[in-house]
Amino acid sequence: MTIWHLIGIAAVVLVLIGFTGFMLMQKHYEKKLFESNETLVNFHVEEVESIYKQMRGWRHDYKNHIQAMKAYLELNQLEELESYLDELDEDLVSVDTIIKSGNVMVDAVLNSKLTLAQSKNITLHAKAQVPARIAVQDVDLGVILGNLLSNAIEGSQTVSDSSNRFIRVYIHEMKGQLYINITNTMEQKIKKTGTEILTTKKGKDHGFGLKRIDKTVAKYDGYINRQFEEGVFATEVTLPL
Predict the structure, then answer these.
(1) Could you give the CA distance from residue 78 to residue 69 in angstroms, rounded to a whole number?
(2) Is residue 117 domain-resident?
């Protein structure tokens, strides 16, 4: 067998190895994409269940509320009735919406995520004001906000004392940009390698959500900054309006 035959065989082997490696990488990416979508679906299911659980609970008590109000009326206890109605109104507001920003997509994501956060005993401070129409596509805005808030919820849950858990959300128009700031408590250890954030969470692909955020922000030539100090993790994002 000549040297040229050996070179030819080696070239074929290298091509096969390269093709096999490419196929394995493609399958790995497809698997991660499927897992990501499955996780997203599971999150949405949990969020919807959280909202409707509150609604079912209020509906279940509807007759009791009516009877209580009738009793106050029969006894002419109008002050007590007014107080009781105020309590019911507050309860209904918590089921209705937490945030009304002016943008349908922002409201949909924020209210579902923040309702889920409430159900996990996380204190919320949220303020959002967004134009009805912006340059960022709804699906991309959903990816950014959805992943940011999912990470914030997950991070807050690492805090053992539930009374110390909080998430702060601030979204506002600023100098022709959409400014997003999500801050949450966290007890995980954070390592920063260049622009990459690493946590103690197990699994080499645990940063997949962060990469999706980064990729989507980059799509619009936006800006992202992450900071972690004294048990608080903060993410800033700016996007063109």
Answers:
(1) 10
(2) yes
